Amino acid sequence: MTKVLFIRYKKNNGILDGGEQVTEMHYDTLTQLVGEDNVETCYIHKQDKKRSILDYLRGAMYFPFDYHFGLTPKKVKQICQLAQNFDIVFIDRSVFGIIAKKLKENHYKGRVIVFFHNVEALYFDAKISKRIPFRNVIIKSADHNDAYSCRFADKVIALNRRDDDKLFERYQRHADILIPIVFRDRFKPEHQSEAFTKAKPECLFLGSYFAPNNEGLLWFVRNVLPHVEISFKVVGKGMEKIKEDEPIMHDVEVIGSVPDLTPYINEADIMILPIFKGSGMKVKTCESLMFGKNILGTDEAFEGYDADYDRIGGKCNTADDFIGKINDFIASPRPRFNNYSRQLYLERYSESTLSEKMRKVLFD
Questions:
Q1: Distance CA 316, CA 310 (A)
Q2: Comparing C-alpha atoms, which of 180, 158, 211, 156 is closest to residue 285?
Q3: Are strands 177-178 and 155-158 parallel, antiparallel or unpaired?
Q4: What are phi and psi of 340, to 5 degrees?
Q5: CA-wise closest residue to 66 among 55, 56, 76
Q6: Which residues lie closer than 8 Å to 299 by C-beta, 6 or more apart?
Q7: Percent above pLDDT 90 for the chain
Q8: Mean pLDDT score of the chain
């Protein structure tokens, strides 16, 4: 039986963020395909703990040598030794591409598979504030690791055509297969409401404190919110900070980390996704589809999702687009539960769609 060493970012002891939920789906699918006893997990970070400034400084020491945060030469050497007992090494983030490089340099005989959650150099360029010391060093490290992943992996997986095009443009390699975001289904029959959207719609922005999220949210609050009659709520890890830092947010209802997003999503008439920068695919879009929500989002929010956007809610890239679509909901209420969104999730982005694609990766 095929034995797989699964390398992932961290061991979680709390709520999984978007990327880690995708990672969890990959792990579950691998165990279904080869058996749980044949998959061993290697965590770069043993637990999701609050790290000190000293922890970050220690991690930063290795960035100039292309060891992404959490990796060290000693840890990579240990992984290379452990890998000799496995047929496949599945590296779940391309920022750990140096592992693929070292495996090949150490004559690893098995196959190396790398999953790109993003084109990481682009992701970190958008994520890291220009005020952060060593910003360019971190981005350069991500760039090098993406390159190592493309050069040394036997198979590369990307989320969507855009990322695939960027990989070829930057590193002269196409992905071997595209596997879009897949989300474990948390929908329950009681989540399906028969109600229509309200005359004053309840609108929800879902996202953690992260530069592209912050920029899109502030743009919406400045340019759209004053011109529409809606109830607007923001929920996401660390988002209380944006309320403290930005005076324009003082009158907006902002909620930080919550143990379960489901009640907030269920209450919403419309999900608002004004995201203008990024890489990969937006997990919040998939989660919204899963719950059968009406969604108003930008090109970036819908990147990688093949759909009739008007049936989901609408694609909006300008303030006038958002204002017009929101006013359409106000003038013509429609079902709060969007059956098209739910069916799209089931057909293309649910866990049942992942197994056959992952089988091809492992065995073709």
A1: 10
A2: 180
A3: parallel
A4: -65, -45
A5: 76
A6: 315, 317
A7: 78
A8: 93
The arithmetic mean of pLDDT across residues 236-257, rounded, is: 92
58's CB contacts (< 8 A; 6+ apart) are none
Evaluate if residue 144 carries a pLDDT over 90: yes
- Nearest 5 degrees, angle CA 346-CA 6-CA 92? 60
Rounded Cα distance, 11 and 171, in Å: 30
Sign of CA dihedral 128, 129, 131, 136: positive
- Phi first, then psi, for residue 169 (nearest 5°) are -65, -40
Number of helices and strands (H, E) in the chain?
15, 12
Maximum separation of any 2 CA atoms in the chain, in Å? 66
Averaged pLDDT for residues 1-16: 82
The dihedral through the CA atoms of 286, 291, 294, 296 has a sign that is negative
pLDDT of 49 above 80: no
| Domains along the sequence of the chain with CATH | 4-179 (3.40.50.2000), 189-348 (3.40.50.2000)
| E strand or H helix that includes residue 322 | helix 319-331
In the three-class reduction of DSSP (H, G, I as helix; E, B as strand; rest coil), residue 43 is classed as: strand
DSSP 94-123: GGGHHHHHHHHHTT--SEEEEE-SS-HHHH
pLDDT score, position 170: 98
Q: Find out whether 305 and 328 touch, Cβ atoms under 8 Å.
A: no
